[in-house]
Structures are given as structure tokens and as C-alpha cells.
Amino acid sequence: MTLDEVLTSLFPSGHTIENGSLGTLHGTAKVEDQGEVTVVGIVGGTPLGVDGAILLAGHVLAAVETGDRTPIVVLVDTSSQNMARRDELLGLNEYLAHLFKSLTLATMHGHRTVSVLYGHAAAGAFIATALPSQSLVALPGAEPSVMDLPSISRVTKLPLEQLNELAKSTPIFAPGVEPLFATGAVTENWAANEPFAPRLAALLRQPVTNSDPRDQIGFERKGRLLARQIAERVATEAAAHA
Amino acid sequence: MSNLLQPHEADWYEASARERVTGLLDPKSFTEFLGPEQRVMSPHLAQFNLTGAFDDGIVVGRGRLDSQEVFAAAQEGRFLGGAFGEVHGAKLLGLLRAARDSAKTGGPRAVLLLLDTGGVRLQEANAGELAISEIIHAILEVRSASVPVLALVGGRAGAFGGGGIITASCSRIVVSEHARVSVSGPEVIETNKGVEEFDSKDRALVWRVCGARTRYLTGGADRYVKGRIQDFREAAIALIPHAPPFELATLKAEQQRLAERLQRFGDCRDAPEIWHKASVPEPERIAEITDDAFLAIQRSKGADHDAR
Hints:
heterodimer, A: 242 residues, alpha/beta, 2-enoyl-CoA Hydratase, Chain A, domain 1, two-stranded parallel ribbon, 11 helices, 9 strands, 45% helix, B: 308 residues, globular
């Protein structure tokens, strides 16, 4: 889907979203029975670097500072983090962490946060834009990945055909919406033939919660069978030794 | 490691994860959770013809630091590069959640993360990536409950990929000379953008871009220590009382700090350009001077801060 199609189908009641520099977006939109929501984004397949990350974090912190608890929608079509010597020299890890922290702080201050992925998002950019929100929606065309299979093949030294075969039997490593849905990363996967606006409104009506249920969801969807149980066993031992 | 050395005098870089955590904490105070005797291993490695480890490459538990209760986790950089898989990540997640849940009832004084990781374990890429985001979320919850979380980095794997983002999510960061902290590794940048962008075989360049001295001088790390376990211990004890809380004021300070760094150094392509602009004496020699000489240097404005 193009950005215009995404905006029209998510926000049919209107919006004031404008393109910022470096592939970023910022503005407000009207959502049925929510009133105005804040919208930020990194779009057009732009890699997320230090400059884009600080810009987006600034928008999120400004929304938190108003104290009005408006929901925040993050639109994502970003490729990966900007792979450049300059960005790493300047401390890209701190800038991506800062964006993650800003979105988490928004949740703690009562903002409902939803990331909407309609293009690519890989590796560190996926962590900083898609995974900090309370919910992650995948639209048609969403291509989340940690790393593509040819690169995984190169690192693991396993033939691509074998990885393609393996990917059919386990969601644990393969790129794409379905495996990431199964592991609990993607909250909802919306199909092209349904209207998005009512679904977004329904998602935003859900209560703001600080708890992170993704290990439980991954267990229920049978995509991540161990994580929840291991985390609980550690916590139980910690309590027993207290 | 020589048996003649006391645990805390041993070298951080050479030590195993268990040696680091036991040497860091008060003698004989460490209790491990889900230890190797329970054989909690990754079920995903066999299909990639890899042998697992009984602890999946991470040690988690509790102990005392300067007589105060703390939680600690140590990654084993020598097992699959300390990378985050499903079990590995969930062990750290469970530890952080336990710290959060017990914070109001006399929980740990701090959580210490002894990071040594290349990032996501590609054989379990989705589980590893998701675990990293769950861990960052949990770190911020722990910080929000007024329990400092410290990152200690000085191992052979550094802190790359999501491990670099986790590092920067902590309240305070301690590094030694060997530490490299980054998102994309030099090899990944070279593969994607070419050797002109980043020559990953140029070791000196790699250290100037990702290394501990660069991070410390620009504020990407809060303490630079010599390489003994004892040095990390002393830094951790000193930093815990001064860790910034996780709140709006801290993040506004962080926004300003990071924006100012871009304004001052945003057009620099190599570390000596930054040192020159920051008026560090003899910027070309930063990489080669001794730790003592390095520690005597005045850091640039913005490197010492109340943000993070």
C-alpha cells in the first residue's frame, strides 16, 4: 500500500499529517470516538538514523508533555537502521534507545501506543519503531524481518534451500508477518479487504497497560513455546531466594 | 585464568561470565537462578547443527555488592557470541521482572547487566529480536520503580545490534578499553555499503568508531575503567547512588543532550574530528595513550550529565 492509501483508510475523518525531513511524518488525525490522535512515522523506506530518531523522539516527548494522554500512532516503512560509519560514530544505539524510551514513557503516562507497519522494517529500526508500542499492526505489504534469509544463510553457513525448508516448520527465525505474528511480536494482521478505521478505533479503545503480554501471546499462538515459562521459572527462583 | 589471582583482580576481558559475576559481587554471595545443572537449553540449535550450552550462554542470579542486595546477569561471549536466543533472552527477562515485582517490598538495590553480545542469535532471530524489545521494556519498568540498571561492557563480543540498544537503555554504562558498543557491526556495514564506507579490517578505525574511548568521551558511556573485575566493581558501587530516574525530565534532558551532540559533531566522519572540535588535547593520539593518560583527559561538554 502507498502512504496515501494507508492514511486514507486509517483516517477517513481527516488528518493534518505532514512530511517532515528525513522521511519522517508528524501530525494529528481524527479517529472515531477517540477524538484527535498524535501520528508520527518513518516512511518511504527511509533508513532510520540518528537524525530521524531524535526528531521522532522529540515529537513523542512533546505529546507526553501536554499531559492529555492522546493515543500515539506510529507509521512504519523504514528498511533498517541507517548503516553508516557516521551514525555509529555518533552513537546510533543511544538514539534508537531514546526513541524506544520515549514511546515507553508515553505508555507509562497513559498514552495508548500503536505501531502500524505497512512496509519494511528490519533489525534495529524494527526494534525502535515497531516493537516499543503496546500493539503492532501489520497491514498488507508489511515486511518485518530481523535479517533476510540470504544473510542468515551467509552467517549460519547453511544453504538457502535448507533454510527455506526449515522456515516452513518453525516460526523462530524466518522473516515475514506470519512468523512474527506467531511469536507474539505482531498483535493483529489486517487484510486488504476490511476497513481499517473501525479496527484502529477498536484497538485504541483497549485500556492502556504497562504489562507486556507478548511472551504469553507467543505461547498461545504456539510460536514461542518456552519464553514465558523460562521467565516465570527465573522469577519464581528469585522470589524463593528472597 | 591464573589461580594465583584473587577473583576480583582478574582481567574482565579474559574471564568467563561466571568468573566476572562472582568476582564483581561480594565473595561467595552469588546465587544463580536456573543454573546449568537444570540444563535449560535452546531447543532450536540442533536443526542448525550447533551444540547448545547448559545455561544457553547467560548466567542470572542474585548476590551482594558492597553488602547490598543486587540482581546480576552475565552473558558468555564465547558461546555463540553471547547472542540473544529464546531461552537466553527469557532468563534475563525473568530476572528483570522479578526485580520490578519486588521493588516495592525491599527488592534489589540495583540490577547489573554484564553484557557481552553480538546481538540477535540469527538461528532464533524472531525470538531473539522480540526478547530484546521485551528486555528493554522491562529495564525501563525496573528503572521506573527506582531500581538502577547498570550496563557493564568489556568483553570480546562487545555490545552490538540490539545489545547496543539495551546498553543505552540502562541508567548508567561502564566500559573498559576492549568494549565496543554499536548497532550495525563494521562487517555488516561493509557488506551492505562497501569497504569505502567502513573497512571492517581496519582495526584502529573500528575502535575509533565503536570503541570505549569514543563512547566515553562523547557521553555514550558514563565511566571508563581499567580492565580488572575490581575496576568494574568499584565503578558500579560508585554509580548506583547517582543513577537518573526514568521520568519525563530525564528524557527531556536526554533529548537535549543527544540533539546537542548532533549539532556539535554531526558533520564528523571519524573520531579525531570530534576530539578536535571538543578541544581534547592531541586528538590523533587518543587511541594509543595509556588508560591512566586517557582517564586524565577532561571530557567534552555534555558527556557528564543527568540524562539517559
